């Protein structure tokens, strides 16, 4: 269908129309520029705003440096700083417009009369039905609208640009280059600009290189952008771990539904039974004893005498405030608490301990330690820093220093379980539990030479909660340090049970806590993200929940062993009669 409209009648005030070639885009006349913001010549305007920008930046950087040195929060601003920020914003807006991002254009839009149709014949508009109008970057609005029927064909709604679809041939070429080694597997995200596509290409290349199938490892349904640069490198899929809920756990007067990610049958059910016993007995009480993350660099001197001199300098109370200022300037949450040293010949191990807010805090304390080491080089130029971590911290290894001094959150949790609850819910007796705890958790662990392992299975619960809430699972090693105590009270009728855990290392910000699934579990516990009211309180509450869950798990497992139900329950709940190989292949 060929549709024509009547010639355009211009307004009385005639304007000359420049002739253009057919098919050119419509262009606005007299569109404002960013440089029109001031009634000055362009070179003067540019010079003014460039001078304003760099002057304000210098002033603000100087002020921020002084605040960091004096441990003043950056968000506390004076009137002069506020005025500088306003000037900075104004100069940035102008400079962005000058370099092509025309801010004024987005605010001052030209009227429809400023548009003209640029075609060979400005007197008529041709529409061919079998040649639909292609949408341009902006909707084309002529200064005289055609009839309604034609307008629906001419003026189309603005559509978002279609997603770029990569053909299998393109991915096939990239896979071949990865297999051949011409394209490194680790660089796929940066080269392709698509995290999911990079994972798919890497996965296919890996299958071809190894000759092994990854069909059972899911690829779809995961946000690969969320782990880029922070959680996992070179992903090819993700692991599915089921999450169960134990509880409610009645702890310090509050109820918590505890998420546990595990593949061990009976674990969630057993912990849930312990939570029930605690709940009907009035709940558990948990106390935080200490909160401080540690890092211990190792430095070397030419003699043991010089190492001893630095040790005395660091442990002198008169020097602590100076060292704390240097340490604290790295973060508004990291605050130095103590410094303890140990000497081995010419080598000095310096154990720094600091608070870290709601973060687990390893990166935070490491930055503070580096500041102190740089400061010490002035008075001890012969000090050779061998490593930022000298294993005296001690991270992700069983160590007596953590068992004795603590690391992260040191917590003790207790409950009194009534006699009838022990009999009806736990199916055993108070006397049996007390005797078994002495023989197994205390004497048995001592016979084995255990280090922090005076418990039944604290690491089971710690690992499950850590996986569900995005903690570092490797820190289960020291976080599971626990001693379980049981004794008869109230004339031997009731059971007092407690767990003491000196090094629970948890955080509610950073790392895996930012992933959607783990953040959902933290939200379930009411400790997602950083606490706005009291920095660090969310992480401390999470540590008490971990200890309370361990208390429930210890109580239930010890009861199962005392009652002779351990093997029977695992045979019932930890065994599958289904042929999983057939299910996987179907």
From TrEMBL:
Pfam families, A to Z: HMG-CoA_red (PF00368)
Reactions accelerated catalytically: (R)-mevalonate + 2 NADP(+) + CoA = (3S)-3-hydroxy-3-methylglutaryl-CoA + 2 NADPH + 2 H(+)
Nuclease as UniProt keyword: no
Pathway: Metabolic intermediate biosynthesis; (R)-mevalonate biosynthesis; (R)-mevalonate from acetyl-CoA: step 3/3
Bilayer-crossing regions: 40-61, 82-101
Enzyme kind, highest EC tier: oxidoreductase
Signal peptide range in chain numbering: none
GO process annotations (BP): coenzyme A metabolic process; isoprenoid biosynthetic process; response to jasmonic acid; saponin biosynthetic process; sterol biosynthetic process; triterpenoid biosynthetic process
GO CC terms of this entry: endoplasmic reticulum membrane; peroxisomal membrane
EC number(s) given by UniProt: 1.1.1.34
Subcellular compartments: Endoplasmic reticulum membrane
UniProt keywords, alphabetically: Endoplasmic reticulum, Glycoprotein, Isoprene biosynthesis, Membrane, NADP, Oxidoreductase, Transmembrane, Transmembrane helix
Family annotation (InterPro entries): HMG_CoA_Rdtase, HMG_CoA_Rdtase_cat_sf, HMG_CoA_Rdtase_CS, HMG_CoA_Rdtase_eu_arc, HMG_CoA_Rdtase_N, HMG_CoA_Rdtase_NAD(P)-bd_sf, HMG_CoA_Rdtase_sub-bd_dom_sf
Biased composition regions of type Basic residues, renumbered to the chain: 1-18
Principal location class: endoplasmic reticulum
CDD domains: HMG-CoA_reductase_classI
One Gene Ontology term of the molecular function aspect: hydroxymethylglutaryl-CoA reductase (NADPH) activity
Protein's membrane topology: Multi-pass membrane protein
Stretches for region Disordered: 1-30
Family the entry assigns: Belongs to the HMG-CoA reductase family.
Stored PANTHER family: 3-HYDROXY-3-METHYLGLUTARYL-COENZYME A REDUCTASE (PTHR10572:SF24)
Name of the featured protein: 3-hydroxy-3-methylglutaryl coenzyme A reductase
Species the sequence originates in: Lactuca sativa
